C-alpha cells in the first residue's frame, strides 16, 4: 500500500514537471481549435469545444445573435473580416477576440448612402443643382411660407416697378380754389395775425420800434475791401505797421496818432499798439466805429461789440509796439508812418 502511494506520488511529480499546471487550462482548447480556420468561415468550433469553464464564459448567448439580425437592413452593411490571429499556432496563448468565436459575426457598419436604386446615379460627376432637387428650399417654395417667383415685367421702365403707384385723387378731398377777388381779402373767420393793439408806453408817445436781429444794417464796404482782401493784404508782406521796428509807445504818442490831420491811427488793445490806419476801410462795422478807438485804448469798445474777434490775428502785421510809461517811450519819426500811406 505504501509502495503504491509512493509510486503514484512520483508519477504525479513527473507529470507536473513536464506539464506544469499553467498549461492545464488550455489543453482542451488547443486540442479543439482547427488548423485551418480560413477555409471554414462558418463558426462551428463551439460545437466541438468542450464545456470548459474558461471557454464557455466567453461564448455569446444565442439571443444576442437574434438581436443583431433585428437591426434595420437599410442602414447596415455587414462585412466579414477574417481574424489573422486564427492562423497562429494553437500552442500560443490565445487572444481574447479569438476566444469569442461568436465575434466572427460580421461587425455592422453604418453608411450614409441610400439603399435605393439612385445610388448609382449619385456617382455622376456633374455638379448638383442649387438648391438641390430634394432640398427643403425647393419643397418650401410650393408652400405658403414662400411666395411664387417674381414675375418681372420687362416692358415697364424700372422706375415704375420700384415706385408705388400715385395716390388716387378723391374729389371730396379737394378744396375749392380761391377766386382772384377772394384771395386778396383778409379772411373773415379765424385768428388773424398781428391784430393785437399796438403797444403803448402809457404816455401817449408812439411805441418804440421792435428790435430784430437784423435791424442794424450791414456796412457796405467799398470794392476791394472785403475780409478776403484784407487777408490777402496781410500775406502780401507789405509793411502795414508803418514802423521799421517795434517800439515802446507812450500814452502821449498814442494820443498823437489819432488818425486826424493826416496822422496815422493807432489804437492799443491790451497793452499792444496797432496801426489801424490800413484796416479802417476793411472794418466790417464801418470806418466810423473803428475810428472811435483811434488814439486811445480800444479794448473796452472792442470787447463790448465783438469779443469773439481775434484782433491779434487780424492786425498782426499792424503791430507797432507795446505801451510803456510816459518816460520810457521812444519817439518814432513821423516820416516812417507817411511811408506806409
Ligand atoms: C481794430 C480792431 C478791430 C477789429 C480788428 C475789428 C474787426 C471787426 C470784425 C471782424 C467785424 C465783423 C464781425 C462779425 O461779422 O462777426 C467787426 C464788426 C464790427 N465792429 Fe469791429 N473791429 C475792431 C474794432 C472795433 C471798434 C473799436 C469798434 C467800435 C466800438 C468796432 C465796432 C464794430 C461794429 C459795430 C461791428 C458790426 C457788428 C455787426 O455787424 O454785428 N470795431 N469788427
TrEMBL record:
<dbReference type="InterPro" id="IPR018506">
    <property type="entry name" value="Cyt_B5_heme-BS"/>
</dbReference>
<protein>
    <recommendedName>
        <fullName>Cytochrome b5 heme-binding domain-containing protein</fullName>
    </recommendedName>
</protein>
<dbReference type="InterPro" id="IPR051872">
    <property type="entry name" value="Cytochrome_b5/Flavoprotein_Rdt"/>
</dbReference>
<feature type="compositionally biased region" description="Polar residues">
    <location>
        <begin position="89"/>
        <end position="108"/>
    </location>
</feature>
<dbReference type="InterPro" id="IPR036400">
    <property type="entry name" value="Cyt_B5-like_heme/steroid_sf"/>
</dbReference>
<dbReference type="GO" id="GO:0046872">
    <property type="term" value="F:metal ion binding"/>
</dbReference>
<feature type="compositionally biased region" description="Acidic residues">
    <location>
        <begin position="116"/>
        <end position="126"/>
    </location>
</feature>
<feature type="region of interest" description="Disordered">
    <location>
        <begin position="37"/>
        <end position="221"/>
    </location>
</feature>
<comment type="similarity">
    <text>Belongs to the cytochrome b5 family.</text>
</comment>
<keyword id="KW-0408">Iron</keyword>
<feature type="compositionally biased region" description="Polar residues">
    <location>
        <begin position="132"/>
        <end position="145"/>
    </location>
</feature>
<dbReference type="Pfam" id="PF00173">
    <property type="entry name" value="Cyt-b5"/>
</dbReference>
<dbReference type="GO" id="GO:0005737">
    <property type="term" value="C:cytoplasm"/>
</dbReference>
<dbReference type="InterPro" id="IPR001199">
    <property type="entry name" value="Cyt_B5-like_heme/steroid-bd"/>
</dbReference>
<dbReference type="GO" id="GO:0020037">
    <property type="term" value="F:heme binding"/>
</dbReference>
<keyword id="KW-0479">Metal-binding</keyword>
<dbReference type="GO" id="GO:0004128">
    <property type="term" value="F:cytochrome-b5 reductase activity, acting on NAD(P)H"/>
</dbReference>
<feature type="domain" description="Cytochrome b5 heme-binding">
    <location>
        <begin position="255"/>
        <end position="324"/>
    </location>
</feature>
<feature type="compositionally biased region" description="Basic and acidic residues">
    <location>
        <begin position="62"/>
        <end position="71"/>
    </location>
</feature>
<keyword id="KW-0349">Heme</keyword>
